[in-house]
Amino acid sequence: MSNTEQTGSVSSLLSEALVADPHGTYARLREAAPVHRTATPDGEPMWLITRYAEARAALADPRLSLNKANAKTSGEYRSSMPPELDTHLLNMDPPDHTRLRRLVAKAFTPRRVEGLRMRIQKLTDELLTTMTGPRVDLVHALAVPLPMSVICELLGIPETARLDFRAWTDTLFSPAPGAATESRTAMRQMHQFLKSVIEEKRNSPTEDLLSALVQARDDRDVLTEPELVSLAFLTLFAGYDNAVHLIGNTALSLLLHPRLLTAVRGGAVPIRSVVEETLRWNPPFALAVRRFALEDVSIGNALIPAGSRVWVSIASANRDGREFPSPEVFDPTRTPTHLAFGYGVHYCIGAPLARMEAEIAVWSLMKRFSELELAVGLNELEWWPTFHKRGLRSLPVMTC
Ligand code: HEM
What we know:
The structure is a single chain. By secondary structure, this protein is α+β, with helices and mostly antiparallel strands. The chain has a single domain, classed as CATH 1.10.630.10. The protein has 18 helices and 10 strands. It has helices at residues 3-6, 16-20, 22-32, 52-59, 83-86, 96-107, 110-114, 117-129, 138-143, 145-155, 162-173, 180-203, 209-220, 225-256, 258-265, 271-281, 314-317, 351-368, and strands at residues 35-39, 45-49, 64-65, 135-137, 291-293, 297-299, 302-304, 309-312, 372-374, 396-399. The protein has a 5-stranded mixed sheet. A 3-stranded antiparallel sheet has the order 4-10-9. Helix 8 (117-129) runs parallel beside helix 18 and helix 10 runs antiparallel to helix 14. Protoporphyrin IX containing FE binds next to helix 14 and helix 18.
């Protein structure tokens, strides 16, 4: 049993130490125990799962609900979303989840995703052409603008509205410290905007995900209006920020391993395997969505009481030596059993798109510049100061 588990009132493990050194801190927690009783930074009690086997089982456990109506406590950490934007897959359990997921999966066809390949390549090439070296910030110049354009094309957000859309999104994902009011305003504007785009799609449907969802709602009445708006919001919420950080983290994996970079350039190692190993080694979505125990649930060393909130650390599970030999080593030849896209009924629906974006972006970057190296030391890299995600604020490189 971990120390944290034996004390009555516990301090939060989701602390500055975890933000400053996630992998080192998780390594210590993982060795101590698979499950830890702790608290959110707001002081709400919670359970943190750190080992692979327990994490994978928990992600697929139907006794752990994503629906926050099942929370025992009223305060829901970091969840200030209004219901108009929050009635979506990551806040639902079967059978509602099954109904909605089926609809989204229908609209999110492999054909629609594959159809984006040429566009993603073109958008990437345009961004690369405008990059002038020798020093470039890859996050700013490539990792951020590419997924934003892709998500807008996928949803069918008109070109004219994209600047506003991007500004609200940036406020929501990267709020300045203490900018709660700006976030609330951005959320309200985003809500109004999504409603108006949906109305437009209703009147003149186009070939995109939003039109497909609108049609599903109107033809068969299987989707409520809040569900429709929330799904649009979820696609943005789940698809944008994570994709940004997957591109940044993949580029970083190569910059930190110059011999691997040469091997990928020469075709000896496929870029696909580098993306896959990055998903294990430095997963963008570091902490899965919180879950609530519907009954007393025994996991690993812990008996988690009904109503408790449970967080699964994907970042920790992905570096568990019980599943991945020499877990600290970046090895693109591994079998990809990582949990970066989740596991079970909530497995990420955008995984093929995310992989495609990162592969195209980083491969094209390597082709564009015959030399690429980090422009700052490893310790000078700036990560977003949060335990929820693992993403770079900037990635300065020297190019030529
Ligand atoms: C690198 C990029 C991405 C990562 C690491 C990622 C990660 C994840 C993870 C871990 C989950 C499961 C959450 C949980 O069970 O707690 C998830 C769910 C989901 N993701 Fe992604 N995601 C990425 C990109 C995308 C993209 C591009 C889209 C859409 C455009 C997307 C849409 C979704 C949706 C709709 C769900 C909810 C599925 C459900 O509940 O049935 N994701 N994602």
